[in-house]
Each structure stands twice: as structure tokens, then as C-alpha cells.
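Question: Hello, beginner here. Any chance you could explain the protein record under this note? Any guidance would be welcome.
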Amino acid sequence: MIVKKMKKLGIVITDGVGFRNFIMSDFIAEAIQQFDSITLYSGLPIYAYNTISQPNITIKELDVYVESKPVWFFRKWKEVAHLQKHQSFYGMKDNLETGYPKNNSARALLVKLIYCCTRFIHSDASILLAEKWQFLFFSKNKITQSYLQLLKEDKPSHLFFTHQRPPFLAPFLYAAQQLKIPTSTFIFSWDNLASKGRMLGTFDYFLVWSHLMQSELLYFYPTVSTEKVKVVGTPQFEPYVMAKYKTTADEFYAKFSLDANLKTICYSCADVSIGSNDPIVIRAIANAIRNNSIQAKVQLVVRTSPAEDHSRFKTIREEFTEIKWNVPKWVLTRENHAETWSQRVPSEEDIKDLRSLLEYVDLNINMCSTMSLDFMLFDKPVINTVFGNPENGMYNDQRFLNFDHFKKVVDSKSVTIAKNETELINQINDALNNPKERTAERKAMIDLQVSESLEGTSKRIATTLSHWND
């Protein structure tokens, strides 16, 4: 008698965005149709998953791994070497330059040493050797050993990482490799491959948004073979076609106390690390509304970044009380974490709020954000503001126009670029007067960045993982 092999999927959720993508989409419902059991290995507290109650789903909170100095050194070496190797890409070079230490502390001197050495030693072989040493130094760590024991007990037949970069998960990947458990990962965002550092380790399989992302992956990681990469789209946008997150126009206007007879502009903020020009742009829009520089009768909604609270906007909120604010309802699940932003988890209400903004506003303005794609999915005009450069003393956000992923957006003409207040106001008037002018360009950009339809994204991912498990 042939005994059927149990298909047991392990899913590694690292942060709130991974939670949104894979817990708040249809993914779990689809995965449970493909696998006999599922274990969620979480970097978030277990209570964050209180909406999951299926008997064949187990949730386990991972112990937090903290790098030793040797592990940090070799991890840093491989990341910097990766940037050195690919610094012909503007985003890689930018990250390389911004990461260079400004002081001479002991750690800074080590980083400078790494920079010096990797200028000359940055071959793929040397990067993989650094990774080998990194893994060797944490192999005997008690957390690594606990991961090994955990996976020995659970015996997942496939381990899926929902993010390819967090270095603190490297010991968990190592444990899977030691136990010969096949691993896969989802490439987290559209900018990760062409501007970010090295992946946390070497996976067996990869899920990507698009054929463009597939080609980038094969370029930056030449040891990966084409058949190990599957284009599936992204669950990041799947809630936009899920009935549970749909709201009516009347509900939208009531929720944000908006006038249905006015056109609505949404400004979506970056986080404070790159969004220091946000208040300047918001003030420019608000003043233009007050002095009637904008030809149409409009109202402004500002959506802040989920990665932070709204405290940095206190002054502008008091100055322009007519602005409506959407502060994302992401719950901080754990205090005193090394990466506090990663412990914020979205609420169902926030996904509804975001979708309603995408669906019912007339124009979006942001600083070179992924939100550009979100609004394009609803065929809304998008203006990217980049007011800062080295000459004017403002935060230099114009440099993001040269990042490989965003240069494609700029070149596509799917958005307009405003480098100052005058350009911004002119572009607002143009966009509100001719909202469909760039419809074809927006559709082409979405097709380039997300190669599969939003409908069925989770099913495609679950089916692919099941196939890799056979």
C-alpha cells in the first residue's frame, strides 16, 4: 500500500506588512486547500493572529535571534560586497554611499574596513563564502539550535519565507537547510532587487511580482536557475479585489467627513526617514486650495505612513484644520523591539480605508512611493513630488528619480514629476482637468510591475508552493 506523503507548509511571517500580504489576503484560505497542515512561524506575537482559528493551522512565535559580532561582520561583508558589485545601479550606489560611517567608533572602523576590502573583493564566490562564514558562526548559537529542534519536531515539507531580506531569520533558514527542508521566498517589494542589499541567504525557490522582477532576480543572483522562479503577482494588492474590503462612496465620504460635491486630493506620506519634505508639500497644497490656485473646488486628505504615528504633523494640523487626516490603524503589537515599525499590524478597518481612498479620490500625490502603483490600479492620476536637491538645502528626494525601479516609472510617463510648488500646482490642475490623459501609460506600468491579475493571486501562490512540495 502506498502511503500518501503529508504536505505540511511552514510559513514565516516577519512583520506587519507580511501579515497584511499573507494573513489578510486570501492566502491562508487557499493554502489550506493545498496542504494537509500549516504552521505559521511568526516574528509577531501570537495574539496578533486571533482571527485564525482553523484546527489544522498552528501558530508558533519564534524566539528572537540577536547577532554576535562575528556574524554581524560577515553578514555586513556580504551585503556591502553585493552593493559594491552592482553599484552601476543608482539605488545600489546610493545605499552604498549612505551606509558609509560618518564617525570612527570601533564598529564604524570595521565597516570602513569592509568597504575598503570589498571595493576589490566582491565576486559572487566571495559573497557566498562570506555567507558561509556568517552561517558557521551562528550554527552553534542556542537560538539556532532551538530552531533546529523546532523544525525537527514539526517536520514541515516546505518552508515559505514571506520576505527575503530580514537578517535575523538567517538562522531559521540555516536550520531548514541542515534538515534538507525545501525553502522558498517571496520578493517583498518592487524596489528590493535593484536597490537593496543581499538576501538573507540562499533559497531553493522564488516567487516574484512580474517578469521584470524575474529578470532582475536572475541578473543579481546568477546561481539561480529560471525554473526555480515563478511569476505570481503580489498579494499586496489583492485586498483591492476582495469583497470584504469594499466600501461605498457614501461610506467613504461619511468616514472622512468629506463633501461629495468637491474633488478630493490624497497626499500619501513617506515615513520620517525619507519624508522630511512631506510637511512642505502638504502646506503647498493646502495654501493653493486656500488661495484658489487650484481651479477646481477641492478638498485634501492626508494619509500618513503606517510605520509611524502622526506626531510630526502636529504643527501643520493646527495650521490647516480643514485638512482631513487618515492615520493608518496599525496596532503596535510589541514595545521595545529593535525594529518597532515591523511590529505594527494593520487592522481590517485600515485596509478598507486605504481601498476607499484609492477608489474614490480624484488624484494622488506622493514622493516616489509604491502608493503610485496602488492608485494606478484604480486608474487615478499620480503626481510624484521631489522638492529637495543638494543645492536647495531640502532633503534630497530628487535622487530617487534615478533609482532603477522608479526611473522606469518616470520614463513611462505614467506619473508627472513636480520639483517645486509651481510645477505641483500646474500638474494638479492638469490632472483634475484631464484625469484620463495617462490611462494607457498607467495600465502599461501596472502590466510591467505586476504581471498577473489581482484576482486569484493567493491561489496562484498556494498552488505554486504545493507544486514545489510534490
